[in-house]
């Protein structure tokens, strides 16, 4: 619902601590990673607060990082699904401008008949990827500026920037999403995207020529053509002056899209907390992003994820001493190490504030949170709950 | 949400075991029927899986069998409400064709002033109902074929099949839904249904003449005019090749509407399980319907319902030995024997799969499920959850 008519002044400060991929599942009888971890500080926050489980998108849906974070910031993640091209640009700190069309690229392998035999060219390493990107940087197109940037391994970013005429982004993927078939034509889905499709077509033709003698990566596949979305900022939506402490580019990028101040800091928790302390007096919504929980989950490393959670727990007192009025600790999705990937399982959350209804849950873990006082709720409601506990929202109706 | 963009190949098989009217309420301090029953096999599935409570339509809404099953198959039961006439046809295995208009009929009693004094003609028995239906089969109409079929007691099915011009189904009930007033005119709600209304009017006039000397059933009341809905099949919606093992016609009919293969089998659990074993290799979504729990609930027979649940429990090992990747056990609604009818109480559900987050619930019962890891959720999400646990869904967003 539109909260703007309900917004009211408050000095209260809200701290969102987002442990990426926090949720897990049991494997080996030790409970989830969060349950197996020794977390006295998180347990104390939970026992003096309210807990629950969230679904970032919907029950059974596995969220990408984009939807996961959009939901945490109170934006419906289906309505505001940020395109893959844009997220790729955000992920490498590329300074995307309004009107730019961004796409995610893969180096791939074609056989002599022009059929895709490997969509990732054997997952060539990042060094090789960067070398090929340097070759593609030679490509010039009429009326459109071209940017090609390496991402990781076989991945790269393509950005088309209009010189004269505006570009649409509704262009079909050239990636056929399966092997045994040639790359697809970049067909425009609307009149406004015709010029984009022509430019993409020309880019692909030149890339094919440039890469013809390379091996195993002799072609490119493009997908997720997208432009910067029009999003109301946190200030417009909630009257909040937001600030992001996030070491990884993609999360910084999403925060920037929502008008948050993005502080330069390293990717490690200590750097982020130091930056948090510096930023603290100047903002009323602070978002700290902790990546390691997701990384260890993606690695399939149960003990590593447990250790990451314990590291976060040890850092909690340094954040509490800033005396946030509302603390939310949660994740943007689950990443069970047993699955070594994002998953659909609902995400544990704790909310701690003086105005909480304490719910009798005494430890921070998935099983305990399933019976918590916040219930099982769409993650997009967390922001409303935080605003309410911070005294930022008036009564609705008389 | 539309799952089609997220579908991905998986070999995993999903088994839905639907105990009709499963949910109950306590009466006499023994807990619900499910809680009073000895169910070691269901308890084991629950303790190694995830549990919750579902509401098929919405909190407080008592579902009919149609909405209850549509929700289980992931279709919003309000958006896709199958008309009563169609469900009546499905319930007696009548081979309804697209374009047919079906209605549910009651034999009723009129007094000498033409006022309805009993909407069910004293609930005449099925034999008497069938005799009267045979009389109505004499009715002929211009431009429309007429089918009249007995259902049970005072109930019958009317089907109008167009010969030339298409028929609409938006016609008011002739059933006034109360006594002390004459039957209503079958008024068309739109131009396209004018011919239907005229045909119904002529049918009713002839029926009144034919039945004039009968007692107590001397007239008919019609309601729920409807046509076969346009529904995406399970294959279109989820890429699933579905198969229904259901002894009762209505459930077979609903399954057929959704493009499932419907196997011929008797109405008893043993026949259904034998058919399940035969069908198993050829499908990836298998729906087994168990009717007795609802029947005993409708009878107001607590012990009978307990015995039905125990019978289902004893059959569980024979289904597990097929090694389904995802097992869902639930009901389409609650039928507490204390109320002897369908009810609005949420329905216990267990989901068992290797990819489950086990939730600490150790027995399958309503009270335990209320604290389960699936939470309290609309039943239409169960299909998404089953697909997720079966590896049929890709990540949403990047």
TrEMBL record, chains A, B:
Give start and end of each Metalloenzyme domain. Answer: 13-387
| InterPro entries (alphabetical) | Alkaline_phosphatase_core_sf (IPR017850), Metalloenzyme (IPR006124), Pglycerate_mutase_ApgM (IPR004456), Pglycerate_mutase_ApgM_sf (IPR042253)
Catalytic activity entry: (2R)-2-phosphoglycerate = (2R)-3-phosphoglycerate
Locate the region Disordered.
Answer: 169-193
**At the top level of its lineage, which domain of life is listed?**
Bacteria
Alphabetical list of CDD domains matching this protein: iPGM_like (cd16011)
Q: Which biological process annotations from GO are given for this protein?
A: glycolytic process
Its family remark reads: Belongs to the BPG-independent phosphoglycerate mutase family. A-PGAM subfamily.
Record protein name field = 2,3-bisphosphoglycerate-independent phosphoglycerate mutase
